[in-house]
Design a protein that fits this description.
alpha/beta, Spore Coat Polysaccharide Biosynthesis Protein SpsA, Chain A, two-stranded antiparallel ribbon, about 25% strand, globular
Length: about 250
């Protein structure tokens, strides 16, 4: 990796997992097992591939389950800091809620805790370090929700068609992104807000400040339904059937 090292990763683990009920009635979605270990550990292994040295995980739904899953507060020797949200703050509010833990970080990697992915993360890091922007989103040109518009320069000009500014390509947002910690000043503490709303405000206020890196290599799955979870969990327990190389 070149340039600044991304030492900290913020993994979003506080969601209710409503789309996977009843599987998530008594456990946070990222702790559902795949191949005998919590789903979130695949995200952690993926992040270790770019040299991450600390994980921060926000919690809300059955927070004690995280302490049970990681009694040493570490994964493969890398420390895990848990930040409980009494009120669920959504993705943007959750990021703001860990700001005090990021005093020594110039930039971090954010990663949804309910995805399985083998994309080369070094491509995202290099794209961010090669530009003067506030955030870089890992995008794909194929997938179920192609609602992020990117122009030829790599700047994101719209998300979810909110600004009615189509770009040169419509892409899928993978839920993985790099962000300058200075961006957190654009989020009000305690506000329940999606990170998409934050990005949209910055796109309007400073076009080009939010960029995208199209990374179509590797695999990506959003565990968005019980059927998807059962399929991937079943593949992981039968290596000869596995089409997604989950083990990193």
């Amino acid at each position: 990796m070149t340039g600044r090292r991304f030492k900290t990763a913020f993994i979003l683990g506080a969601g209710l997992g409503t789309r996977l009920r009843p599987l998530t009635e008594n456990v946070p979605k990222p702790l559902l097992p795949i191949n005998g270990r919590p789903m979130i550990t695949y995200a952690m292994d993926h992040l270790l591939s770019i040299g991450v040295e600390r994980f921060i995980v926000n919690t809300h739904h059955y927070p004690e389950k995280y302490s049970e899953a990681f009694p040493a507060r570490a994964w493969r020797g890398v420390p895990i800091e848990l930040r409980y949200e009494p009120t669920l703050l959504d993705t943007g509010g959750g990021l703001k809620n860990v700001e005090d833990l990021l005093q020594d970080d110039e930039a971090i990697v954010c990663y949804n805790g309910d995805i399985l992915c083998t994309m080369p993360l070094d491509a995202l890091v290099k794209a961010h370090e090669g530009s003067n922007c506030e955030a870089t989103l890992a995008l794909r040109t194929q997938g179920p929700n192609l609602n992020v518009d990117i122009d030829l320069s790599g700047a994101i000009c719209d998300m979810r068609r909110r600004l009615q500014k189509p770009g040169a390509a419509a892409c899928l947002f993978t839920g993985i992104y790099t962000v300058e910690t200075s961006l957190l000043s654009a989020i009000d503490k305690g506000r329940i807000e999606s990170i998409v709303e934050v990005f949209l405000r910055r796109i309007v206020a400073d076009p080009g400040s939010i960029r995208g890196a199209i990374i179509d290599s590797g695999e990506w799955d959003d565990i968005g339904s019980a059927d998807i979870y059962e399929r991937l969990a079943g593949q992981s327990s039968h290596p000869e059937k596995r089409g997604h190389p989950h083990e990193l």
